Amino acid sequence: MYVPDEDVAARRRQIEVVPRAFDRLVLSSNCGGRAFLRAVPRQKEGGYRMAIKLALLLVFFAITVAIGLYCRRHATDVNSFVLGGRAVGPWLTAFAYGTSYFSAVIFVGYAGQFGWKYGVAATWIGLGNAFLGSMLAWIVLGRRTRLMTQQLKSATMPEFFGRRYGSKALKLGASAIVFIFLIPYTASLYNGLSRLFAMAFNIDYTVCIALMAGLTAVYVVAGGYMATAINDFVQGIVMIGGIVAVVLAVLNSNGGLSAAMASLSQVQDPAVSSAPGAFTSLFGPKPLELLGVVILTSLGTWGLPQMVQKFYAIKSEKQIFKGTVISTVFAVVIAGGCYFLGGFGRLYGDRIDVAASGFDSIIPTMLQSFPPLLIGIVVVLVLSASMSTLSALVLASSSTLTLDFIKGTIVKKMDEKRQVLVMRVLILVFIAISVIIAVFQYRANVTFIAQLMGVSWGALAGAFLAPFLYGLYWKRANRAGVWASFLFGAGIMILNLLARPSFPPLLQSPINCGAFAMLTGLVIVPVVSLLTKPIERNLIDEAFECYRGKIDAPVKKAA
Predict the structure, then answer these.
(1) Is 129 in contact with 295 (CB distance < 8 Å)?
(2) Which residues on adjacent β-strands are paired with residue 38?
(3) How many other β-carbons are positioned within 10 Å of the β-carbon of residue 146?
(4) pLDDT, tens digit (0-9, with 9 covering 90-100), for 203-251
(5) How confident is the model at residue 11 (pLDDT cuts 50, 70, 90)?
(6) Which of 177, 277, 280, 387 is the most exposed place for a label (fewest CB within 10 A)?
(7) b vs e for 372-407, b when ≥16 Cβ sit within 10 Å of the residue's Cβ?
(8) What is the number of helices (H) and of strands (E) in the chain?
C-alpha cells in the first residue's frame, strides 16, 4: 500500500488502532521516490503456545486462592486481620514491602517512560528505590515504627497520628487524605496490564481488570494481612525470576550488553538532547529531572500508609536487620532491573509511535517476540506485582476507614468481629470503585482522572512523611506542625492538578511537585512546631517510653 512520506506517521497510528491484526509495520525501501508502509500480519499462535501461557496463569491463580483460604482461620480479629498478629517474619515482611512498592506502574509505565527519557541512566531510579526507598527506610523507620505503634496500640497511620499527637481531628483528617488519594492510585494499577494481556491473550482490557480485581478480593477478604504477606512472598519470587529472565532475553536479542549499549549510543533525539550518546551517559540527558524522579519514587515510600504499615507487623525489633538486607537486595534486582530494561526502549523506536500509543506501549513492544513460556512468565510477573500492591492498598484503605473513621465516630461501639466484617465489606467496595474508575477512564479517556492518579503519590507522601518521621524521633513535633504538613502536602498537589500552568516550569510536573512537597514538609513541621504550643508532656512520655528498654551488652574481662 502506498503512503506519502508525510502520511507515514498517520498511517502507522491508523494501523495501531487494531493491534491484534498486525504484528509490526515495515517501511519499505523507496521505490521511484515514494515510501511504502507495509503491515505484517500477526502469525497465528499455535494451540500449545496459548496452552503454556494459560497453564502458568491457572497454577498462579490456584496457589493464590489456596493461600487465602488457608489463612482465613487466622484472620479472626482486628490485630490478626490487619497486622497478622504482629508476628510476621523478616522474609515475609521484606517481600511484602518490596512487592507493595513495585507494581505494573513501575514495570510497564515508569520503566518505559523514564527509560525512554533518560536511557540507561534511568537505572539510578531503581538504585534510589533500593537504597533510599528500601534500605534507608528500614534503618530509619523500621525499629522505631515497630516499637512505638505497639506502644500506642495503633494499627493504621491515621491512628498513629491521632494517638501520638493526642488529636482525634488529626486522625480524621489523615483518614480523609488516605481515602481521597489512595483510591485513584489504586485504579492506576490496572493500566499496565491491558497491553500485556492483549499481547499475550488478545482479551479485552475490562476482562483483565475484572480478573485481577476478583482474584485479589478473594485472598485479601479471606485471609487478611497474613494471606497478602504469604502471597507477596510467592509473587516476589516470580518477580525476581521474571525480571532476570526478561533483561537477559532483551540484551541477547540485541547482541549482548556491549552491542546493545553501542546501538543505544547512536540513538539521537533533538527534542531531548543534541549531545551524542545522551542515552548511554552516566546521568542521562536531563540530570535534574532524573533527580526529582529518584526523590519522589524513593523518599515517597516513607510517607505511604500501605508501605509503613509493613513495619507495624514484623515479629520483633530483632528481625529488622535481616528484613533490611532482604528488602534491599529484592529492590536492587526488581527496581534496578526494571529501569535498566526500560533504558533500552529506544532500540525499538522503529516499532513504537510513542506520540500515538503512549509510553505504556514500550515494554510490551520489547517483549512481543519472546517465546510463549517467557511471555507467560512476564504476564504472571506483572500480574503478581499489581495484585500485591492492590492488596496492600485496599487493606490500608479499608482498615483506615473502619478503625479511624467509622469506629467511634459513626458507630460508637463496634466489637472485634464486626470490625473485621466491615473491613472485609469495604475491601470489596474499594476494589469495585477502583475497577469502575479504571474502566471509565479507559473508555471515556477522562484526562482529569489520569492526572489525579499521577498526583496521588505526591499528595500522600507530601502530607504524611514529615509528621510520621518527626513523630518517631522528635518530642517537640506538635499538632500545628502536623496540620501544616497535611494542608501543604495535599493542597499543593491539588493546586498542581487544577492550575498546573501557573506553577514554575520545574514544578509543573507532578513528580517534581511531589518531591518538592515532601522536602518542604521536612522544613514546615519543625518550624511551625517551634513557633506554636507543644503538646502535653504525658503524651510525649507515653509515646517515647518504648525506646527506654534495657540493652544488654557483653562484658569483657580485663586482661
Answers:
(1) no
(2) 26
(3) 23
(4) 777 887 888 888 889 999 999 999 999 988 998 898 898 899 889 999 9
(5) very low
(6) 277
(7) bebbbbbbbbbbbbbbbbbbbbbbbbbbbbbbbbbb
(8) 25, 2
Q: Is the pTM of this model over 0.85?
A: no
* pLDDT value of residue 272: 78
The three cell numbers locating residue 533: 504550643
| 125-129, 297-301, 322-326, 491-495, range with the lowest pLDDT | 297-301
CB 123 within 8 A of CB 343: yes
Quickly count: other Cβ atoms within 10 Å of residue 551's Cβ: 5
Q: For residue 497, what is the enclosing H or E element?
A: helix 479-498
All three cell numbers of 144 = 522505631
In one-letter notation, the amino acid at residue 65 is V
Bridge partner list, 27: 37
Q: Label each residue of 523-545 as H, E or C.
A: HHHHHHHHHCCCCCHHHHHHHHH
| Helix boundaries (H) for 343-478 | 354-357, 362-367, 372-400, 416-444, 447-473
Q: Is the dihedral of CA 80, 81, 83, 87 positive or negative?
A: positive
Contacts 24+ apart (CB under 8 A), 254-260: 254/344, 254/347, 260/344, 260/347
Question: Residue 529 is which amino acid?
Answer: S
Cell of 412: 460508637
* pLDDT the model gives residue 292: 80
Cβ count within 10 A of residue 43: 7
* pLDDT score at 10: 42
Assigned C-alpha cell, 7: 502520511
With cell 492483549, the residue in question is 198
- Grid coordinates of 437: 474508575
Place of cell 501557573: 502
The answer to whether 510 and 455 are in contact (CB under 8 A) is: yes
Q: Which residue has the cell 499521577?
A: 454
pLDDT over threshold 60, residue 67: yes
- Provide the 10 A C-beta neighbour count for residue 17: 9
Extract the C-alpha cell encoding 393.
492498598
Distance CA 379, CA 200 (A): 8
Taking the C-alpha atoms of residue 388 and residue 367, their distance in angstroms, rounded to an integer, is 22
Q: How many CB atoms lie within 10 A of CB 258?
A: 10
Digit-coded pLDDT (tens) for 125-175: 999 999 999 999 999 999 999 999 999 999 899 999 999 999 999 999 999
